[in-house]
Specification:
Length: about 160
């Protein structure tokens, strides 16, 4: 496996808390409620991306900030880790909602489904397409995080 050394990639890896992003693994699929329906992340991935505290969302915000300033080629290099981080976030949010006995509304379901579709489409994009696509994708991520905060009453778990 080749290691691509790009400053934003290194920042992303540090923010994710892992030594190197998984490049082979596709992000886990999730249903409309966020439950895993295929390959689950390993224990190390789950532990490195806890959404059950504000830390996970803070890490995602830092990650999104790094992407905002990245070139299309840098975004392509960060994509495998971004896809895994996003899939982990979706699964974690779904798990938290189930634990709190909460159901997502139509806006939640539509946003989560759109993000899952993004994760499938993004690997097929070239650098220029990805650069143009990323602002809308980031807006969906931020919208979902805000919905999650509102639905959970802003409580830290």
């Amino acid at each position: 496996m080749r290691t691509i050394l790009v400053l934003p990639t290194l920042a992303l890896v540090a923010a994710c808390g892992s030594a190197e992003p998984k490049r082979d693994a596709a992000p886990e699929s999730t249903s409309t409620t966020g439950a895993a329906t295929s390959a689950s992340p390993s224990a190390g991935q789950t532990a490195s991306m806890p959404m059950q505290s504000s830390t996970g969302m803070e890490e995602m915000q830092a990650h999104l900030q790094a992407i905002r300033g990245a070139s299309g080629d840098s975004m392509r290099a960060m994509l495998p880790a971004h896809r895994q981080m996003t899939a982990n976030m979706l699964a974690s949010m779904g798990r938290e909602m189930r634990e709190m006995d909460m159901k997502g509304d139509a806006a939640w379901d539509a946003t989560a489904d759109s993000l899952r579709q993004d994760l499938v489409r993004m690997p097929e994009m070239d650098s220029a397409e990805l650069k143009g696509f990323m602002p809308a994708h980031q807006a969906r991520l931020e919208r979902l995080m805000e919905m999650h905060r509102r639905m959970s009453g802003g409580m830290k778990m």
